[in-house]
UniProtKB/TrEMBL annotation:
InterPro entries named among the record's database cross-references: 6-blade_b-propeller_TolB-like (IPR011042), Hetero-Diels-Alderase-like (IPR052998)
Gene3D superfamilies noted in UniProt: TolB, C-terminal domain (2.120.10.30)
Name of the protein: Uncharacterized protein
UniProt KW Coiled coil keyword: no
Organism lineage: Eukaryota, Fungi, Dikarya, Ascomycota, Pezizomycotina
Signal peptide location: 1-18
Top-rank taxon, per record: Eukaryota
Keywords, in A-Z order: Signal
Species of the source: Purpureocillium takamizusanense
Length: 361
């Protein structure tokens, strides 16, 4: 395992972000840097293990999953737990299926640049399994999905956790030279992680597609399933939607998406919490936002608050699962600093922790 020493640390304190007594819940919420990866490292997504450790997917420079051990401590250890370069150059989404078992998705890419095209027919879903040995995970290829455009986020069906839904959409086509800028269709795949069989379960939804409003990026991005509702954010049009699904993960007729909220930000991967709370917390455009069940949006950290330079390029969020950090929102990101021009951003991945204790709309 490769171990990366944190570049920044707070003074050693047993509770890294302080307890409720010193946190008023006022915006900007208190936060701290857990780890800054070497420049050129893109931290893309996050999943929180049952033991509280964080799993982070990297898109550059390697297709690796990193682990942050005991992130509630003052100086958590960050280490590589598995490198998927046998199958992919970049990892994107990660989601837990059965206990301490995860699906990760990725592909080969033509370039290590931030904006690059995936290589045709190389997208695949892989499994990372800690269930037999929490310290030595096993990995396997579940399935190749050659029809995919850009597999993004992964969410297991709550009632059948061996079946996952995977979002898929990209403005760039899987080819080296972009001659056709017509957006690919936004769609969602259903994958049986036991058999490897997959099929399209949602397609032909304008609410899932990009029209290039924010450049060469995606429409449907982060996804989550809560109850019988499938939620997704559209990065391109700044909406969050939900759609009722059946036991197979397919839309319940008439299959019309409902608007959860509209807010001009770069909707990325999100989570609900803390614990059973119905607040949606999402990475945004150099900011982190919270969304109430009524659709009210509050910028809780980053641009739009007095703490406006600390969240460059956030990519994903996830709540702690240990008794020490159940109110702590962990956030990954991919930029070293906020650039004057978005396309000029310098890649430098990081992980930050936000104390959400006491937050109310």
């Amino acid at each position: 395992m490769k171990i990366f020493a944190s570049l920044f640390a707070l003074a050693a304190v047993p509770h890294a972000l302080g307890g409720p007594a010193i946190n008023t819940g006022k915006v900007p919420l208190p936060e701290r840097l857990l780890h800054h990866f070497p420049n050129g490292t893109w931290a893309e997504n996050i999943s929180v293990r049952p033991n509280g450790n964080l799993l982070i997917t990297l898109s550059t420079p390697t297709g690796s999953v990193m682990q942050v051990k005991e992130p509630w401590t003052a100086n958590p250890v960050v280490e590589e737990v598995f490198n998927f370069d046998q199958w992919v150059d970049r990892l994107i989404g990660i989601g837990e299926t059965t206990r301490d078992t995860y699906v990760v998705v990725g592909s080969r890419f033509y370039s290590p640049d931030a904006i690059a095209s995936p290589v045709e027919t190389t997208f695949c879903a892989m499994e990372l399994d800690f269930s037999k040995d929490p310290n030595k995970p096993k990995a396997r290829l579940i399935a190749r999905l050659p029809e995919a455009y850009l597999l993004q986020s992964v969410a297991a069906l709550p009632w059948d956790r061996t079946t996952v839904l995977i979002s898929d959409q990209y403005l760039l086509k899987p080819r080296y030279n972009q001659s056709d800028w017509t957006p690919s269709p936004g769609q969602v795949w259903r994958l049986n992680t036991v058999t490897g069989k997959y099929s399209l379960v949602m397609a032909n939804y304008p609410e899932m597609t990009s029209i290039g409003a924010k450049g060469p990026d995606v429409g449907i991005n982060g996804i989550k399933i809560r109850g019988n509702w499938f939620y997704w954010g559209n990065t391109d049009n700044s909406y969050v939607y939900r759609l009722k699904i059946d036991k197979k993960g397919a839309p319940v007729p008439p299959g019309k998406p409902q608007v959860v909220t509209h807010f001009d930000t770069f909707w990325n991967d999100f989570t609900f919490g803390p614990e059973d709370e119905d607040i949606l917390w999402s990475a945004g455009w150099n900011q982190v936002v919270a969304v109430s069940s009524a659709g009210k949006v509050v910028v809780v950290d980053g641009v739009g608050t007095s703490n406006n330079l600390t969240f460059p390029g956030p990519t994903a969020t996830g709540f702690g699962r240990h008794h020490e950090d159940r109110d702590i929102l962990y956030v990954t990101g991919n930029l070293y600093s906020i650039p004057d021009v978005p396309i000029d951003g310098k890649i430098g991945g990081w992980i930050r922790a936000i104390n959400t204790t006491g937050f109310r709309f």
